[in-house]
Amino acid sequence: MIRELTKDIIRYLPTKIVPAIVGFISVLVLTHLFLPDDYGNYALVMATVNVFSILSAWLSPAVIRFLPFYQEEGKREEFIATTVQISLISILITSILFLGMAFVFRSRIEARLMTMLYIGIGMIAVWSLANVLQYFLRAERKVYLYSIFSVWYSVMNLVFGLFFVKVCKLGIQGMLYGFLLSFILAMPLLWLLSVGRPRILPINISKSMIWTMSKYSLPLVLGSLAAWVLGLSDRYIIKLLRGSEEVGIYSASYNVSQRTIILFVWLFVLALSPIIIQAWEREGKEAVRGYLTRVTRFFLIFCVPAVIGLSIISRPLTKLFLPQTYCEGYRIIPLVAAGAFFLGLQQIYTNTFVFYKKTVLIMVSFLTAAGLNIILNLLLIRRYGYLAAAATTLISYLVLFFMIAGLSRRYLTWVFPVKSLVRILFASGCMGVASYFIGKGLTGSAIINLVLGVTSGGIIYFVVLFVLGEVSFKELQQVFTSKAMSWKRL
After folding, report:
1. Contacts from 118-122 at CB under 8 Å and sequence distance 24+?
2. Cα→Cα distances 365→92, 312, 404, Å
3. Whether the Cβ atoms of residue 231 and residue 393 lie closer than 8 Å to each other
4. Could you report the per-residue pLDDT of 316-341, keeping only the tens digit for each?
5. Among 52, 241, 255, 344, which one is least packed by beta carbons within 10 Å?
């Protein structure tokens, strides 16, 4: 199980590390090209496109859960046709809804932002369809193809966007046109490689499949919308109560932290879901109990030091890479990193509800946390600004984690690696102290100090883990063996 997980994490690595690097570069470039007010409007459009794309691609989660089942039943083509057709209808309805809402509220939205939102209609369509198609790649564990398309989108979004910004002089709107073009160019090949040529015309929709998938997916979609509220809705409240400038400052530092800690978190999420579902179907409950304990330990080993390390270097990181007008946002990075950690940890517990198809409980947990987040934001952002938004997000993620963990134990219990967590925290503390003092002012170069602090801290962390017996050479050998096997398949 751990070997398979390691293999898939390595295969998914380009999917996350390249977008993380490109996303980090994008934040640096855009914050140097545009003032916080413009960057804030861009962040609002991307958040809006994100939420409407969740609505359009509401069947995506069911693809991973049910494609293996219908393949065994010999109904793959029927399943694909049904999913694609319903997705296309959903995209059309959602786009019309978005256009209608934009028209109704056009008098209350500034002209620049309104123009960007109209471009967002096309972005919703291409993003939603690509999302559905890529879920077919994930469901069949076509990891390399999934990675190639993810890397294409992240790189070409930036390349095409900067072309429209610098060459065509379209301003921040050029980044949205770049997004559109990168998805449109990739769509024909993505369609062919993910679903082939399913017979979608004439209309071929299975009502029984739709009913089965709807019962599973709709609670997850509501949960995803609540997750959007937790992660992105605070930008609207900041805009309403404090203005676009603070949205820009908040979004810049938020994105810097996301491009680092989220990399570790979502690598586990992407790789784990298909594998653990297959293990549940083939090996049963008892085997999965042990797998979840080992996966959690694996998650803690990599993600705990990432959170602590990012928190320590947050100030020099923002001073080094962001313009002065954005630098004060460094204060939110430790809060955002900690929130992302608990978001990732709850995903491990969420698998229990997937096993038992109890997705309503996921929905209830996310909606509760999202409601708390909105209430706290409305109470605190007016007075404390974007710092309150980061703090309330962390509080909400903590509530979400404890709800998911508590509810999941009604169906499946497994041993949380507490002793491992204690050793990991101790090693991370040693790493943090070393990184702080080594990186504080060892040389006259800020970037050299940062690199030395991160490198030395990482070495010290793993040395301490070896000394404490938390990590062994045998485990490392398994990891590197998995890595070698994975690259050979390339």
Report:
1. 119/45, 119/173, 119/176, 119/177, 119/180, 120/45, 120/48, 120/49, 120/52, 120/176, 121/95, 122/180
2. 30, 31, 6
3. yes
4. 888 888 888 888 888 999 998 899 89
5. 241
- Contact partners, residue 366, CB within 8 Å, separation at least 6: 222, 223, 224, 226, 227, 230, 400
CB-CB neighbours of 490 under 10 Å: 6
Tokens of 183: 């998805």
| Residue 37 one-letter amino acid | D
Nearest residue to 452 (alpha-carbon basis) of 441, 438, 472: 438
Other Cβ atoms less than 10 A from the Cβ of 279: the count is 18
SS3 labels along the chain: CHHHHHHHHHHHHHHHHHHHHHHHHHHHHHHHHCCHHHHHHHHHHHHHHHHHHHHHCCCHHHHHHHHHHHHHCCCHHHHHHHHHHHHHHHHHHHHHHHHHHHHHCHHHCCHHHHHHHHHHHHHHHHHHHHHHHHHHHHHCCCHHHHHHHHHHHHHHHHHHHHHHHHHCCCCCHHHHHHHHHHHHHHHHHHHHHHHCCCCCCCCCCCHHHHHHHHHHHHHHHHHHHHHHHHHCCHHHHHHHHCCHHHHHHHHHHHHHHHHHHHHHHHHHHHHHHHHHHHHHHHHCHHHHHHHHHHHHHHHHHHHHHHHHHHHHCHHHHHHHHCCHHHHHHHHHHHHHHHHHHHHHHHHHHHHHHHHCCCHHHHHHHHHHHHHHHHHHHHHHHHHHCHHHHHHHHHHHHHHHHHHHHHHHCCCCCCCCCHHHHHHHHHHHHHHHHHHHHHHHHCCCCHHHHHHHHHHHHHHHHHHHHHHHCCCCHHHHHHHHHHHHHHHHCC
CA torsion angle 75 81 87 91 (round to 10):
180
What tokens does 404 get?
Answer: 């998911």
Output the CA–CA distances (angstroms, integers) from residue 458 to 97, 202, 302, 420, 464, in the order listed.
49, 58, 10, 18, 10
pTM, rounded to two decimals? 0.73
Tens digit of pLDDT for each residue in 244-281? 889 889 988 888 777 677 666 766 665 666 666 667 76
